[in-house]
């Protein structure tokens, strides 16, 4: 079997596996729905996810250890993940092939040549890792004063190493010593004046451009909702995502750029490809020419997917192991072997030291600039309600890769991608929108935390979510608190009976309770008693529509009697007003004024019982800006947001 055929079969397998894992990320009882399928396995194979979360948090989530295997194999085999596994890379390769399959050989070689702009992806990688490394550098900044002896030992060791280098003449020892002294002096000086809390911060933004989370997000939020319900029903409710337009536009832009340059995203943008390029630049097994037999025909450049120019000095960091050069070479000169290419190799990426330093510093400066908005501190946005089990906001932003898995699994479609509500660094992170979907956040649902690949939403048990058994002392997990807008509430503002929020409150005892109040109904004219027979009162005056006042919420009183309670109206017709009971037989006389009253059950929220599930907001009959709305106040994850002592 030809090597390219083997590679294509591998790509087809992993592409279909990716689509299958997206489809089965669905709650339900069917065999193809979530039943222990390893739906995050491809994310876990992505070493950029593990490396970035390691930098931001100092820990490596257990499932992300798979990324170590990918890194080791890349060091040994080269960028096999890009050419053989990555589903996003497969999509780019197919689209590029479809667009360029009929081009002449010369145009194909021109399209697949190396471009200097391919170094941009390394700058993107360094920027993103710099933004993720702030907390780690902050801990190092405090090191000299916390452990001065150890810090001094490190400095002396570096100076000793510089002296050895100087005498062995391998490089300039004077430059080495000067560099160590300048770094140590800057380190100590910064430590004397700042603890780094304002200068340094960590934010995880790799998921914006990392191809695996990006592809998951695009398929989950823009593609699957379009085909849902055709062959199989992928969810119980139609999925709606307000940010789908932007996410879909960026996705299709990346895909359609392949019409111009094959694998455009992989060559110029992909930070994961840049990481693999750095790991595989000195790989053990490599693509290259044999010492004899090359006729300089250039055929190996025609279908090169990485633009690594195997016909000349090959750029090993750009080779994605597509193996097309081996298949196109008619003389058997190209091979995959342990020795370097006979035509020469260029291992280093096309990026200067100055560019690396500038990009790294820019990334490190970006995170604290994001935090100057104070959205993780005093000016936090209470409208940003995170899913149950979410870590505190600063830690959450250090873990969330914006993959959309929690949004895909949510059975009620209330988990939505944020736009700018949580600031620039919170874009496309999950937040709850209770106007969406089929209901609020269901009490016993813990799906999102058990699917999150980086534990930005930590896995909860049902008992912890509900505050049962060993979690009774902590109480249920609260994601916010409901507040009543009295200016929009039907009973409070418009004298209209409504207890929808109280009826639908799912907690026990209910977090929403009511207090009854009787208010006079506004009429066009007055009503006066004409006579009565048992429970029927005859009246004269303005006409009363039966369908409005016979609902059980309306009462009346007669005359100025204050000692008798109002009587409930059961029916209104041409024969008068029928009461459930008539307490006015002895006190009312003909001509007394009839006072029509409405009983309003005014809603109140008990913050001690409200968990912020949002069912009340979802069901509120005021369909625009709801009359009862949930905000993040009193959420469990942030003690500083507590309402009650």
TrEMBL record:
4Fe-4S ferredoxin-type domain mapped to chain residues: 390-420, 601-633
Transmembrane feature ranges: 12-28, 48-69, 119-138, 145-167, 173-192, 239-257
GO cellular component: plasma membrane
SUPFAM superfamilies referenced in this protein's UniProt entry, alphabetically: 4Fe-4S ferredoxins
UniProt entry keywords in alphabetical sequence: 4Fe-4S, Electron transport, Iron, Iron-sulfur, Membrane, Metal-binding, Transmembrane, Transmembrane helix, Transport
CDD domains to which the protein is assigned, alphabetical: DMSOR_beta_like
PANTHER family: FERREDOXIN-TYPE PROTEIN NAPH (PTHR30176)
Stored InterPro entries: 4Fe4S_Fe-S-bd, 4Fe4S_Fe_S_CS, Electron_Trans/Redox
MF GO annotations: 4 iron, 4 sulfur cluster binding; metal ion binding
Name this polypeptide is given: 4Fe-4S ferredoxin-type domain-containing protein
Lineage: Bacteria, Pseudomonadati, Thermodesulfobacteriota, Desulfobacteria, Desulfobacterales
